[in-house]
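Design job #97: recover the sequence.
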């Protein structure tokens, strides 16, 4: 298993974090992932519209990878809130979300997201096919429900950073990254997201 550093600074200042926590706590009472995600999408759209200027810490990207910053972990419900800062043009590999539901929102900039579906699986290899493409701009919120949570993301800007907010049903400690073997054939690789 490979490891990727998870840049984490507990309690990074974030406008409206208390509102996000209250919203997430209320959504968690639905208990069913589909209902939780739907409630979070609806609630976050209105909350994010009020975000305003982001703290300088959330605008700094990392040279060697995405800057992931944990904002909050719920001891009562187990969900995690993180912010990801994307350098200009920076992209993620094709990846899943560790078998948990999630909600992702763009706070600043534009992310191009390409969804994938597993078309065929043979031993350790998977044939992946693009399923849908989205351009997510400021205020856009999407939901992720396994097994339909496989995607890649890229900052659409070549000169400005983008920032996204993520809420996951439980802390993402392991995910699968898909490494291209040939054409549309990929090899899944388990990645451990470690805090630094």
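Job complete. Output follows.
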């Amino acid at each position: 298993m490979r490891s990727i550093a998870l840049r984490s600074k507990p309690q990074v200042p974030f406008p409206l974090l208390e509102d996000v926590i209250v919203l997430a706590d209320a959504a968690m009472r639905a208990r069913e992932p589909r209902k939780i995600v739907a409630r979070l999408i609806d609630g976050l759209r209105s909350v994010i519209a009020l975000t305003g200027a982001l703290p300088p810490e959330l605008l700094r990207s990392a040279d060697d990878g995405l800057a992931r910053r944990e904002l909050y972990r719920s001891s009562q419900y187990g969900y995690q809130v993180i912010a990801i800062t994307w350098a200009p043009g920076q992209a993620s590999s094709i990846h899943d979300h560790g078998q948990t539901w999630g909600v992702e929102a763009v706070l600043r900039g534009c992310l191009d997201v390409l969804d994938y579906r597993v078309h065929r699986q043979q031993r350790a290899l998977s044939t992946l096919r693009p399923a849908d493409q989205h351009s997510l701009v400021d205020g856009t919120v999407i939901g992720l429900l396994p097994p339909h949570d496989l995607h890649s993301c890229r900052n659409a800007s070549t000169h400005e950073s983008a920032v996204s907010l993520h809420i996951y049903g439980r802390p993402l400690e392991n995910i699968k990254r898909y490494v291209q073997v040939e054409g549309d054939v990929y090899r899944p690789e388990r990645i451990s997201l470690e805090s630094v």
